[in-house]
Fold these 4 entries.
Entry 1:
Amino acid sequence: MGIRIITDSTSDISPAEAKQLGITVIPLKVIFGEKEYRDGKEITIEGFYEKLVKAEKLPTTSQPSPDDFLSSFKEAKEAGDSVVAILVSAKLSGTVQSATIAKELAQYEEIHIVDSLNVTTGLRLLVNQAIKFAAEGKSAAQIAQLLNELKERLVLFAVVDTLEYLHKGGRLSKSSTIIGSLLKFKPIIQLRDGVIQVAGKERGTNKAIAKVLELVEEYGLPDSNYPVCYGYTAEDSKGRQLMESVNARFKLSQTQLFPVGCVVGTHAGPGGCVITYIRK
């Protein structure tokens, strides 16, 4: 009786990392025109951003089908293993819904589905905690319970170059988008209760990052028992700048920087950076 940890590709955990961590990553799909790619399987992060910049029409994304989860669920059932599936916010994608249908089809109670209320580095952070909890000998039900508690303290802020991608992808209203495109403002977005919201806007990257530092103080400082994860879309300079600024201000040492992948990149666009952490 083992524990299998499953996540989806919006965690931006690469196939090589997944193999090393011993987890399963179910891909979402990115669609450029008529051509569909399974995220992380048929398109790399670098290849995606090259295509995104040249694309006349923005790509779209789609959730995995119940069948995409079913084979993993059935394998676990046959082996007598428990499953903890930690997935992208149900308010951003139908991935949780697909997994729930697959659980019903598998007719197996030992599948625990966790709606992370999060995405990218936030989802990655929860997956890493799940691996740690499993190594400590906790049961699948205990891991799911702990993750559901931790996700309430998970904070995500991002600075994006423009809100245009979020608006075109249907993740943000037109009125919010117009504000950001005026006067070279850099919008600051956050995830609250699994939904993307605009948390502020500043003229230029330096001011936007300074604003993120203020927001971190306002929403609660990072709990030093957990790592802080940073991310970047397409190019890492802003991600590094954000990481160095936050680490210096709050004396953080347990931090890592990761590329943000295709599905989130479709909605955020290039030139973005993100911080996620568990608040005290």
Note: The first strand starts at residue 3 and ends at 8.
Entry 2:
Amino acid sequence: MVILVTGGAGYIGSHVARALRRAGYEVVIYDNLSTGFRRLANGFELIEGDLADAATLRRALLRTDAVMHFAAHAYVGESVTNPRRYFDNNVASGLSFLNTVVDAGIKRLVFSSTCAVYGVPAQIPITELAPCQPVNPYGVSKLFFENALEAYDRAYGLRSARLRYFNAAGADEDLETGELHDPETHLIPLALAALTDRGPELQVYGSDYPTPDGTCIRDYIHVMDLADAHVRALQYLESHGESLSVNLGTAQGHSVLEVIRAVEQATGRTVARKLAARRPGDPPVLVADPSLAKAKLQWSAKRDLAEIVGSAWKWIQKNVAQFDLR
């Protein structure tokens, strides 16, 4: 079975591509490399193309049995300052992509969604029954695509798994691929970068949230656990033939300061940091209730925060020249 992975040269997509290959699938990566990295697609067939490039996409879909869709802009802060970019890519180009997929006769799609669709939840942990009221354009764009998938399911029989995951982090056990963004905005790699000679101080955005230490709390999930969930979601679509939306998280929240302490404990170094103002669009607490994923996919996260940080640290040590460690 051939799986087309859009955005497969990105952080999460590259991990999922490897998990699919380990599970026996043939993988083709489709990526325009605007934010992805060619090196993360090493060992796979790579087709360079945009989501809205229907001609190139149609050719890629000719021998495709199912699609996993990761190709989206994914920075909350940027979505607030430049919403046009997010609606152009995640919505307009996303719909063009979806129409091409349907026209090609594809019946199964796994979508990389996000907990940002919930906005500021009334209750923690968050279940799939919580109202979807996103508070930033990134979350709005992802929810729009989820809604389109539901409509295409009813109208065209496109079965989909909408995976609403929380904060992905860490690196694969073989250290083939790790967290690599340009620009980097994620907490753990930024905290590790602050250990280097050239790395900037870590900005702690907000210290006055209604949390025990005043900093945001998030549910951090190891990218390898996340990749496993994507394979299971595809298998669920194959065996059950019904769509679903599920949270992917650990049910455990960690504040920014707790993550910093975990980085310092793993490395034996001090993270240079300073407090900054809150960022627009950041809810104070986001923690998953992943019980539906356990029931439907027989999946649960296996790795804790220490393992997440440890794998990310090993990834950076392997790439010492790039990260310029002391």
Note: The longest strand covers residues 108-114.
Entry 3:
Amino acid sequence: MASSLFEKIWNKHIVKTIDGGPSVLYIDRHLIHEVTSPQAFKGLETRGLQVFRPKQIVATADHNVPTIDQHLPIKEELSRVQVQKLTENCEKFGIELYGLGHPYQGIVHVIGPELGITQPGMTIVCGDSHTSTHGAFGAIAFGIGTSEVEMVMATQCLLQIKPKLMRINIDGELNTGVVSKDIILYIISKISAAGATGFAVEFAGSAIRSLSMEARMTICNMSIEMGARCGMIAPDETTFNYMKGKLFAPKGDEWDEKIAYWSTLYSDTDAKFDKEIFIDAKDIEPMITYGTNPGMGVGVSGHVPALSEIDEKEKPSFEKSLLYMGLQPGTDIKGKKVDYVFIGSCTNSRIEDLRMVASFVKGKKKADNVEVWIVPGSKQVEKQAIEEGIDKVFEEAGFHLRQPGCSACLGMNEDKIPAGKYCISTSNRNFEGRQGPNARTMLASPLTAAAAAITGEVTDVRELI
């Protein structure tokens, strides 16, 4: 029987299906960090349980860590306690930890792929909504809650209801200045921040196949921002070439065996989807958000919607959002002054993102009114950026390459955007207060963010290329 990519992996991992209910799903890889794990560990201790398969868990510190002076004690007390608790729990339960100071430390969704921990055909979970990132490799990867983190630690299994299936096809060639972040922001702007609720989404089409692995990760990372349970892309030669030689990737005969299996992971021609969407790549331009959810986005040459363009039921939340953002309906987005530019997060902090920005800003200087934070996704990305001289390009442009962490993606560490200030951010969420109390966030690609850093305002990067 014809099967989709999702179904092939899902069916292979079912331990038991409860009639009329969820399935017991086996989990291949469990990633943890300092924020959603302490309560889970505490729950195990309370019940007198051990971690069932500690070798299938990998831990790192990312959300709470500072991105300057990481060799010093963490200043914020809650952050310091959470990071310390992760260290203690990993020691107690025999779990591999890539903590501060470790050469593999970094954002959990960056280190998994770069170390070869993330592999096609796997089921992967983490107490973090952006676990969907790993679906770029042809894996079923999704975020879970703290009680579910405890369940996986205790049993290496999880109760899950099978989601509906959606395929989004993007075909054709991308325009100049348009990158993967623009693709996903465009999709979300079209179907809304709830448009894929209840679905597992497969991204397909020639435009997707032409992307690098790091670009594919950006797209799958933000699947959750349109309500999807997970996002996936079928593995191919691009996937295999990226993985080959990675630290924890299969070697020798095992590599050949895995390639043979991974090559079967695609949706059959007559696979059935509950919903299918078709997009022409040429319709996508550099995107930017203007509101307080990722679906409130427009092309950079466009405008904030006028009230007449908004559905009557949506007007109260639309007006509330614009009030928070300090924007007026119907006004152009281009030319809006910005105060901060943040390039980082699990969405856009990989070496390709940093190379893209460095290539664009080389020989240029940042605007005087803008503060620019460049935060690599891992120690390995940081090391590579320094080896390639990217840090020097940033320094000459007036940018500063900081140390790895989630940073200004969320107001959970020292890197917060001040109240009322505008930040163009390559992260994934623009909720009220996400980057700090009353901070105003505009999501964009690394290229669009870099253009704003140079000009001091929202800019169409195509005019500078």
Note: The mean pLDDT is 97.
Entry 4:
Amino acid sequence: MSITFDLNKIKFATDETTFKRAVDLYERGKVTDVREISGDLTAVVIGTQLYHVFVSGHRFGDVECGCYVGQKGNLCKHAVALAIYFVMKGRPLSKEDKTQCHEVKCSSRREEVQEEDLAAVKKSITEAMSYIKPYRGPSRTWFANQDSLQEGCNRLSVIVSDFPVSRQTVEILVKLLLRLDKKLLGGVDDSNGIVGGFMSEVVQMLIEYARIDSAVITSFKLIGGRQTCFEWEEPLMNILDEAETSS
């Protein structure tokens, strides 16, 4: 069967605790009686009791499960375990398969990025940004919107954590922050602090970049005199001011 999601989609769209518990269920052989019906997936997953689980093969996140979490309409470990079973076809998970990236980390590498690689990075950022969208729907869809924000930030975290320290990547990161700031001002409901938290992590990574290579500081000028939604730019502007004062 051809399903519309892969393991990366599952990892990006699932919180850390749920994913780890789902992996445990999968690896212990708790996903049983697996069937495909009209492109959708069903199974009996063994937990504290037997749970009959449904996962749409067309849209990850469209699930049904009789457990407490599933009854509230949320993505549960049983549904995620079934989704993993289908994308892995019962094969063992590697250490990399089981590793998620939900936070920004500085690579500390110092190198330039090739033009063709820059184009690919910018494309992947644009794709991840599509998950960070305004919330204009009824209250019942708010949680789905927040899940989309989290998935977008998870995808962005993987991308930027692989960046080397260079003026090129600093420019990309500053422009990313400005794009996210514009989205927050344009209707993205970040009351859970998902997007703001990611932006703060990027700012901290840029501060680390400045410690590693002071030459990248001049790229902070791209922020200009813009007023931002929660003044995330202040520490970067302070570093720029200090660098210009001492030069």
Note: The two ends are 63 Å apart (CA to CA).
